[in-house]
Amino acid sequence: MIIVNLDVMMAKRKMSLNTLSEKVGITLANLSILKNNKAKAVRFTTLDAICKALDCDVSDILSFEPDRE
Fold first, then answer.
1. Beta bridge partners of 62
2. Paired strand residues for 3
3. What's the burial of 64, exposed, middle or buried (CB within 10 Å: 0-12/13-18/19+)?
4. Distance between CA atoms of residues 14 and 66, nearest Å
5. What whole-number distance in Å separates Cα of residue 64 and Cα of residue 4?
6. Rounded Cα–Cα distance for residues 65 and 52 (Å)
7. pTM of the prediction?
8. Cα within 13 Å of Cα(62), Cβ side
9. What per-residue string of b and e applies to 32-41 under the rule 16 or more CB within 10 Å gives b?
10. Which spans in the chain are helix H?
11. What is the pLDDT along the chain (69 residues), one digit of tens a residue?
């Protein structure tokens, strides 16, 4: 399972959802879906813009946890 740690990076950078939305150019609703781990997909261009806005790496935002069976 892919885990989105966007909220952690936003907290580290002291950046609000509104500010990130403006910098990245995506709606608050779509950013909120991503932040809350509800997204089914994300574009590489969106990840690129988020990483630039938060001055971080993709691995700071996304992590992998094996499914528990």
1. 4
2. 63
3. exposed
4. 30
5. 9
6. 25
7. 0.88
8. 15
9. ebbbeeebee
10. 6-12, 17-24, 28-35, 44-54, 58-61
11. 899 999 999 999 999 999 999 999 999 999 999 999 999 999 999 999 999 999 999 999 999 999 876
